[in-house]
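User: I'm writing a tutorial on reading structure tokens. Could you give me a worked example: one chain, its sequence, then its tokens, then a sentence or two explaining what the tokens reveal?
Assistant: Sure. Here is the example chain.
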Amino acid sequence: MTRRELRENTFIMLFHKEFHNTEELKEQLELFIEKKTSISEKDSAYISDRVFDIISKLEEIDADINEASEGWDISRMSKIDLSIMRLAYYEMRFDDDVPMQVAINEAIEIAKLYGGDNSPSFINGVLGKMAKNGKCV
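And here are its predicted structure tokens:
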């Protein structure tokens, strides 16, 4: 899988988190991977590790997203937008292999595919503010 495909599949599983507790998410991930016939063990492990690492840092990630999104509490955000921002912010802050601008651009591309009409600009604004305020270093 390409980096973009890995990122997109990670986003999909993060979105599942909104509807399942962590224990159920493990089973959901297994079912998801079963349906993906062309996924390698390495890619499967990458997605799983990434999803559960993000989940382990959700409290911190959500607090920073909440702070940057003035006037928009995360409880009022689209679950798709929130999942995209969680992934992007994780990459910006915790993944040294992903340049900050790449994480933002990829989040915008995922938002164009899965989000609403205003999702790309909203996500760009929040992530851009977090980058500008030094939250990701």
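What the tokens reveal: The first helix runs from residue 3 to 16. The two ends are 28 Å apart (CA to CA).
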